[in-house]
Amino acid sequence: MLMNKNQSTLENFPVSSSTLGTSPFCSTTLAVANAKSNKATEKQKTAFVTSLSDWVCSNARPINIVEDRYTYGPVSASSILPRRKTVKKEIKNDAKIGRNEMKAILIGVAYERQLSLSPDLWSDSYKKMCYLGCTAQWVDKDWKLCSFELFCLPY
Fold first, then answer.
1. If 0-12 CB within 10 Å is exposed, 13-18 middle and 19+ buried, where does residue 55 land?
2. Rounded distance, CA 142 to CA 145, Å?
3. Under DSSP, is residue 3 helix (H, G, I), strand (E, B) or coil?
């Protein structure tokens, strides 16, 4: 089961009995229990793609991990597991939504004159590079300090 703070627990997904034992992480009990139904609903597929993209992003995993043979385990790949292009599209969509939400927040606090932008200059002596970053900070209506890194670029 995958869990995300923004989602509820995902339901059991269909598995194929023909793929039992292919992964060191598989559960034969779960596989036998779910082997009766071999097709996932569209709702399950969408929830799984969303959770998988969240997992890839939050753990800094490479996108092609979704096509790794140990990721599949006892799951019938044709029924629910997305391809890496699907996960990549979901990540791009989530990033676009997140940028739009943050843009609206930053415009709102800037309009109310509550926004502070702090530049940050630092250097990496190992790589012999300098970096320029900028952090946006503001206090929300509950008096909670909010901070967001806008960018960090080498210069």
1. middle
2. 9
3. coil
pTM of the model: 0.55
CB 111 within 8 A of CB 51: no
DSSP H/E element including 88? helix 84-111
| Three-class secondary structure of residue 100 per DSSP | helix
AA letter at 96: K
The domain spans of the chain are: 1-113, 114-155
Phi then psi for residue 81, to 5 deg, are -70, 125
The position carrying tokens 């932008």 is 117
One-letter amino acid at 115 equals L
List helix spans (H) across 1-155.
28-34, 42-58, 69-72, 84-111
Tell me: the pLDDT tens digits for 123-139? 988 989 999 999 999 99
Residue corresponding to tokens 């995902």: 10
